[in-house]
Amino acid sequence: MLYGTPTLKADDKTVLAEIEDMRQDLKYRLAETHRWDGQLRRQLQARAIQGSNAIEGYRASVEDIQSIMAGEEALDASATVAKEIAGYQQALTYIGLLSRASVFRYDVGMLNALNFMMIGHHRHKTPGVIRPGAVYVRNSSSGEVVYEGPDAELVPGLLDELVVWLNEGDLEAPSYVRAAMAHFNLVSIHPWRDGNGRMSRALQTLVLGCDQITTPEFCSTEEWLGQELTTLEYYSVLRTVGHRRWSPHGDTLDWVRFCLKSHHMQAQRVRQRLNEAGEIWTLLEERVDADGLNTRCVSALYEAFVSRRLRRSRYQADEELSQGQAARDLRDLTAKGWLRPYGETKGRHYEAGPRMAELKADFAGRITPLRDPYR
User: Fold this and answer.
1) CA distances (Å), origin 366, targets 173, 235, 265, 270, 359
2) Which residues contact 71 (CB under 8 A, 6 or more apart)?
């Protein structure tokens, strides 16, 4: 028996309708091609990876995650953290392919494979293999057991039941609700020795993708969940609804509401970034033209605006330039006060110069607070 899908109340349906309105708005706006689309998507995917791994204690900057995504060496993240990031990115890449597959059915083998992709570098944790014994989730600071998973002998049957439900159960329920319940049931079953939280958040993204709520970097809640206060709320809701040990029941509305709120807040944030992206790009085009610089330099300046640092290799790949062309452009931008270089050889990177810092400060003062849809 799994945890049951709750019946939504009027305010939940209102929140759900608002989420769908924002999604449709983003969908139509993204149908138009913009120069900044690729960089914005990359940023959002990196932030989603950052958020989900931060929940588990693996912290890396957005810039380092983008480097790892591009197959480059991270400047600050440790080798240990880099392996976690790379494993999670590999699993998300596969999830993106599955979401677009013309024929797809959930099965336990696929779930085990995703777990192996995420934590395959931890061979002592038997990645991709159902746990042989008990599992306990502990408070990292106090050591207190906050959740006990079901007995190991029950896990294979529960996973089979979950797979049947994923393929056939509650198909009339809204996609966001089904995705939330997939997340909750998988993390409650806790079928592996490690990676259960990341797997459950990734499964939520996969359910949405398979229901044609595509572009997971725009509908994933992982960035929102990775914020410190939201992470604490996330664990609190899991603990409250889960009752500290496997005890399936239908009283899961608080969990679904938490997920709907997370989707709503993240959608608001993405919409703000999309609005800002167009304004920033247009402004940078004007400044580049006034400085007599090549128009392609806007790509480098935009990256420096939305990130803490820019690497020559990133700009070179984005604009399909030679190493010499990219290096000359960055020297020109440095001379004009837009960028400031740091480091040497492989560690060479660029951060905001005085002119860019002034522009970033101006936009930082314009941020509109997000609205809690349940208040």
Assistant:
1) 38, 32, 18, 15, 11
2) none
Provide the whole-model pTM: 0.92
For 44-69, b/e burial (b = at least 16 CB within 10 A) is bbbbbbbbbbbbbebbbbbbbbbbbb
Look at residue 139 in the predicted model and tell me its pLDDT: 66
Distance CA(232)–CA(368), nearest Å, equals: 24
Question: What pLDDT was estimated at residue 351?
Answer: 93
Asked if residue 76 lies in contact with residue 64, where contact means CB atoms within 8 angstroms, the answer is yes
Angle at the Cα of 311 (from 307 to 314), degrees rounded to 5?
A: 90
* C-alpha span between 265 and 277 (Å, rounded): 18
Q: What is the pLDDT of residue 127?
A: 96
Q: Identify the three-state secondary structure at position 349.
A: strand
From CA 40, how far away is CA 42, in angstroms rounded?
A: 5
Residues 85, 92 contacting (CB under 8 angstroms): no
Strands (E), the chain: 136-138, 145-148, 339-342, 349-352
> Residues of the chain whose pLDDT is less than 50?
none
* Structure-block tokens of residue 316: 């070179």
The domain 291-364 is placed in CATH, from the list 1.20.1290.10, 3.10.20.90, 3.40.50.970, 1.10.10.10, at 1.10.10.10
Structure tokens at 48: 């989603």
pLDDT of amino acid 366:
81
Q: How many CB atoms lie within 10 A of CB 237?
A: 18
Please give the full DSSP string across 15-76, using - where no structure is assigned. Answer: HHHHHHHHHHHHHHHHHS--TTHHHHHHHHHHHHHHHHHHHTT----HHHHHHHHTTPPPSS
Query: What's the CATH fold of domain 10-270?
Result: Fic-like fold (1.10.3290)
| Beta carbons of 75 and 63 less than 8 angstroms apart | yes
Report yes or no: 120 and 127 within 8 Å, Cβ to Cβ.
Answer: yes
- Map out the domains of the chain as residue ranges: 10-270, 291-364
